[in-house]
Amino acid sequence: MAALASAGSSEEASNDVGDIDNEWWKTAVFYQIYPRSFMDSNDDGIGDLRGVLSKLSYLAETGITATWLSPIFQSPMIDFGYDISDFKAIHEEYGTMEDFEELIAEANRLNIKIILDFVPNHSSDQCEWFIKSAAREEGYEDFYVWADGHINEDGEMEPPNNWQSVFYGSAWTWHPERGQYYYHQFTAEQPDLNYRNSKVVEAMDDVITFWLDKGVSGFRVDAVNHLFEDPELRDEPLSGKTQDKSSHLYTEHIYTKDLPEVYDMLYHWRNLLDEYTEKHGGPARIMMTEAYADFKFLMDYYENADGSKGPHFPFNFFLLTDISQTSDARDYVFNIQKWLTYMPRNHVANWVMSNHDNPRIASRLGVDSVDAMNMLLMTLPGVAVTYNGDEIGMQDFRDISWEDTVDPPARNVGPDKYKEVSRDPVRTPFQWSGEKNAGFSNADKTWLPVHPNYEELNLEIQKSLEKSHYSVYKDLIELRKLPVMEQGRTALEVISRNVFTVTRSLKGQSSILTIINTSDEEQMVNLLEVLDEDIKQLTVLVSGVNSIYDKGTEIPQEDFEHFILTPQEALVCMIE
């Protein structure tokens, strides 16, 4: 029996302009740009805002209408922008505020909405707020989480408790000037802000409003489930997963993650965004949140039992974290249906398959899976999120040397283990062409090395081909404009251990069927198990680069019973 779910929005399209403006995000493709690796405009080997500006026409040509920029703010770059020293300034390597304003203006002209990465959990230790807090300056004394240590049996000073950093080692660092330890969930250069202090909340509200005034359409909010920690600073229980006391896996993080206070903070920020939109008009300003958190905890991000609203959507990472090359059709359907089942009614689903912290689709699931996974991503209901480069099937560069490695967690564990944790392989420069440095930069050395396969795998080549990953991706974006894709219901069905289908249907519209073979072997299935008897044919709308079916191919009913799919093949068809 098929699993049914709504698209998360009304099947009746609204004619009210205000409603349309407020719902622009519900079926959008959000294209994540990692600015440092996207395009270098001044040949210093580092991507920048003017580089992004120069490629906005590419996004428009592709059909992208919203892009999320990873952090661009003033930063010492210990964690490549996630350690912010000035939340209202542009990092000099990326350009100037004038460059950003020009970027916004051009994006508006091309009808592309700009979403910024908002990093509220912590600042840089070079932030003015931290410097003032360390000096106990009035009004800033408790801007961060400070605590006294204790003397152990050997007479040595130790941190307040056993909390570990996500990036390895103690989450506490001694500050000699202050004479106390400060707390940091990530690097020692990223002290955690204290959200139990109303002045911190006011300061961050001001940051949000500053960028809204600059014209951004919303925020991707980083690491939200880390915002609060136990005020009593109790030791966390041991997990039993490792004997390494410096590992983040050493304890169960019941006092440093997913605390209930997170909800109220998110509801507060959602209210701020809604009030801003109501006051200033224009399209809805949105919030999407990042949290690798307990599943049911995530569902309450959407709204609580009293109707208080949180982010427009919390990122859904289950197709990223719970799907691998060994997953079969049942795993895919289970993870998709899980989100659709638990998501509160009248909210919008979203789907993420890679990002700047995790392996790319081609490397995690196999190079032959790229088209199938983009078809799945784009034909499921709600929001699709694409990491720059996945539209052309870019791959992780897993052979980056220790000398070229810059990612903090990788540097922390040393040259013997760095490849196990480094995020550098997924952050290499975008492969625009077969020219020097893949057309990313004319510099002699780029901040990360370019993947050596760029001469064969790049956008320029794919644009020249009749069928490529990029052309498949463009076709899928165009397909998403159909009413059945924007408003239709969704049915998922496992046909065999290796093949499943997604069907989108809407009254008065032709239904859309996506068929996916998850295996490395050819599969023959009986489509009559999922299609009604009166269906005469399927017409192929989108097929992959290695497909045996071309776009426009008509598949008659007599072929349904013994339907062939090549390894990792997927098709998107119109049901007629």
Structure characterization notes:
- This protein has 576 residues and is α/β, with parallel strands linked by helices.
- The chain folds into three domains: 370 residues, Glycosidases (TIM Barrel); 56 residues, Alpha-Beta Complex (Oligo-1,6-glucosidase, domain 2); 88 residues, Golgi alpha-mannosidase II (Immunoglobulin-like), CATH 2.60.40.1180.
- It is 26% helix and 17% strand.
- The protein is built from 17 helices and 24 strands.
- The chain has an eight-stranded parallel beta sheet. The chain has a seven-stranded antiparallel beta sheet with strand order 1-17-18-19-24-21-22.
- Strand 17 and strand 18 form a beta hairpin.
- Helix 12 packs parallel to helix 16.
- The longest helix is centred in the middle third of the chain and has 20 residues.
- 47% of the residues are buried.
- About 2% of the residues have low confidence.
Blueprint of the fold:
Blueprint: E1 3-5, H1 17-22, E2 29-33, H2 49-54, H3 56-62, E3 66-69, E4 73-74, E5 86-90, H4 97-109, E6 113-118, H5 128-134, E7 146-147, E8 150-151, E9 157-158, E10 172-175, E11 180-183, H6 198-213, E12 218-221, H7 261-280, E13 286-289, H8 295-302, E14 313-314, H9 318-321, H10 329-342, E15 350-352, H11 361-364, H12 370-379, E16 383-387, H13 408-413, H14 418-421, H15 459-464, H16 469-479, H17 483-487, E17 489-494, E18 499-505, E19 512-517, E20 523-525, E21 537-543, E22 554-556, E23 563-565, E24 570-575
Parallel strand pairs: 2-3, 2-16, 3-6, 6-12, 12-13, 13-14, 15-16
Antiparallel strand pairs: 1-17, 4-5, 7-11, 8-9, 10-11, 17-18, 18-19, 19-24, 20-23, 21-22, 21-24
Helix pairs in contact: 12-16
InterPro entries: GH, GH13_cat_dom, O16G_dom_2
Enzyme class: hydrolase
Protein name: alpha-glucosidase
